[in-house]
Task: structure prediction
Amino acid sequence: MVTDVETRARIEDRVNQGLRGQWYPVAKSVQIKSTRPYGTTLLDERIVLWRDTDGQVKCIEDYCPHRGAPLSYGEIHEGNIGCRYHGVVVDGTGTVQRVPAMPDCAMEGRKALRDFPVIEHSDAVFVYVPSVERPEPPDLPLPDELKDPAWTGFLCSSVWDVNYRYALDNLADPMHGCYLHAESFTLAFGSKQDLLDLDRKEGGFRISRRGQSGENFDWSEFVVADSGMFCFLDIPYPPAAGPGGHMRILGYVSPMGPRRCKVFFWRMREVEGFQRESWRFLYRTLLEERHWNVLEQDRVMLEGMPDTARTREMLYQHDIGVAHLRRALNAAAKAQLAAEDAAQ
Ligand code: FES
Ligand SMILES: [Fe+2]
Result:
């Protein structure tokens, strides 16, 4: 007999670990090479990525089928990955290709490891984590700005030592902008008191300040698809930042482990012609460092919060976005666990 308390704990665990059946960005494209493997974690599992001889990104478990050494410590041989420990070579499907130390070894030809679907888009590498409900990868949900050539931008990514939920909560919480980032170049404006509105939308929700818009980080919108979640928000630019409108930030957060996540932010602008080049130049020479400073303020604050903060918080009206996000994650985790139970 499973009690409500146990069910709630299972749901909470699943949400904390990260939903399955989702596409997650795991690295910037430039980090994945054909000359050396890249090891990382996703949903607390070790994975390794590299490029084969055609430049296609491969992703398998970071685990040597011989005795479990991390394949990410190994080398790339003709598009396959060779274990550093005793030389076993595995291909991008997780099948053992060669056991150089042992002639006619029975391991050869065996599919020993799980492989993960990969899509490379807009300078990032996305990996699909299958679920019982969706073993095959669905379409990768992408923001329109990443598909529209009128937009141009830069991807920045960082590892934060905090459960991914805190990074998502932070994005559903526009009111922190005028406090935490009060000293920053772009976020020093607007009133420090307001109420927030939550608008439920088809496939997501939007959280916005009632009293101001276009002055600071005044709203954010979450797109919650079955197969992935991302959010976007606008940062108004002061006149000193040059011509053009707002900067749009597209954000993804990937769960790496119980207390680690990787954030991916594309900083985009819809600018064409010479303004496009001048903004890109300005960004690299001046703005990027300032944006990193803002992101560091978020990282330091979130990493300073205890893992148990959610168990003794006192939410108020401004936390409607945070609360709504949690309901969405809980509902998805509950459905996922029910599908797993039914399949057993
Ligand atoms: S553990 Fe990898 S070859 Fe032995
Ligand atoms: Fe922030």
In short: The longest strand covers residues 247-257.
